[in-house]
């Protein structure tokens, strides 16, 4: 599933095409994805200026001047493609939704597995939307500090890896970037979240922000389905230090003359990658 860096990369590409524009038509090519497409989707947003595109967690929000908002979630296999005016390309397979701008740009949502989601609501009702109502703090916002991270984790003894994936605490973090941040912060993924001390919190906060920013700069991570809006893959997968590297030498240990392999365990049905030397097990 695309995580914060992938969604942010897609959002930035869409901004240059959609902000300040109006939609001339919307093609809805099937009745549903994970949920039915909302009534009025093909008519309500038309001919109204798009005033802003923004991201909340892993959701893309398109705000219109008449106070309506389209929400897009890519699910597991969703991709958004942009065709600029004059590009006469044939429709792609599994194009379920197509936005046409009045200056002839084409934005297509492709979702083979149909786990994505599109919603339409009045902007003033955003906080009541079930997808958005209980989301936690944005990790790239000014409100995200070592202190607010500590507060978000203070009440749970669940493993730190699981706690960071809880979108009610901190949004946008997924399996890849949590594994990478915990590795850089030298925190074992099974350590209880509320047992981290101030030094742990300061390191973890810093590396969460650093890794997200680096991943955005690299265009995100392409492992299977994710690509940019022009069809090109991201590049941050080439910079992963532990994720997907089970059995390979830890790159930090290697620089210090140690031969320690990255290990994989399962937490809440998800693979967790870590270095047993750099990230000491708190139970041993």
Automatic annotation (TrEMBL):
Cofactor(s) the record lists: Zn(2+)
Keyword Plastid included in the entry's annotation: no
Keyword Oxidoreductase: no
Catalyzed reaction equations: 2'-deoxyribonucleotide-(2'-deoxyribose 5'-phosphate)-2'-deoxyribonucleotide-DNA = a 3'-end 2'-deoxyribonucleotide-(2,3-dehydro-2,3-deoxyribose 5'-phosphate)-DNA + a 5'-end 5'-phospho-2'-deoxyribonucleoside-DNA + H(+); Hydrolysis of DNA containing ring-opened 7-methylguanine residues, releasing 2,6-diamino-4-hydroxy-5-(N-methyl)formamidopyrimidine
Membrane-spanning intervals of the chain: none
Keywords: DNA damage, DNA repair, DNA-binding, Glycosidase, Hydrolase, Lyase, Metal-binding, Multifunctional enzyme, Zinc, Zinc-finger
Positions contributing to DNA binding: 94, 113
Family annotation (Pfam families): Fapy_DNA_glyco (PF01149), H2TH (PF06831), zf-FPG_IleRS (PF06827)
Signal peptide positions on this chain: none
Enzyme Commission code(s) on record: 3.2.2.23, 4.2.99.18
Family from the record: Belongs to the FPG family.
Subunit composition and interactions: Monomer.
Name this protein carries in UniProt: Formamidopyrimidine-DNA glycosylase
Source organism of this protein record: Bombella favorum
Gene that produces this protein: mutM
């Amino acid at each position: 599933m695309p995580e914060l860096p992938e969604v942010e990369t897609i959002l930035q590409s869409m901004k240059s095409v959609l902000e300040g524009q109006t939609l001339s038509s919307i093609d809805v090519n099937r009745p549903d994805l994970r949920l039915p497409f909302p009534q009025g989707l093909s008519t309500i947003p038309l001919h109204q200026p798009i005033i802003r595109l923004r991201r909340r967690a892993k959701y893309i929000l398109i705000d219109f001047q008449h106070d309506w908002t389209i929400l897009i979630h890519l699910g597991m296999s969703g991709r958004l493609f942009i065709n600029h005016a004059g590009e006469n390309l044939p429709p792609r397979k599994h194009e379920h939704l197509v936005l046409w701008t009045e200056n002839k740009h084409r934005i297509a949502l492709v979702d083979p597995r149909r786990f994505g989601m599109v919603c339409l609501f009045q902007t003033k009702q955003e906080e009541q939307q079930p997808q958005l109502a209980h989301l936690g703090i944005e990790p790239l916002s000014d409100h995200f500090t070592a202190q607010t991270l500590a507060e978000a984790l203070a009440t749970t003894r669940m493993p730190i890896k699981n706690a960071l994936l809880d979108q009610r605490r901190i949004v946008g973090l997924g399996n890849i970037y949590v594994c990478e941040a915990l590795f850089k912060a030298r925190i074992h993924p099974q350590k209880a979240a509320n047992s981290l001390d101030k030094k742990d919190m300061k390191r973890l906060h810093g590396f969460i922000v650093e890794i997200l920013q680096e991943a955005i700069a690299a265009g995100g991570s392409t492992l299977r389905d994710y690509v940019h809006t022009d069809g090109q893959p991201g590049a941050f997968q080439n910079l992963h230090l532990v994720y997907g590297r089970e059995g390979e030498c830890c790159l930090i240990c290697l620089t210090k003359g140690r031969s320690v392999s990255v290990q994989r365990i399962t937490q809440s049905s998800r693979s967790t990658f870590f270095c047993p030397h750099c990230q000491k097990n708190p139970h041993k």
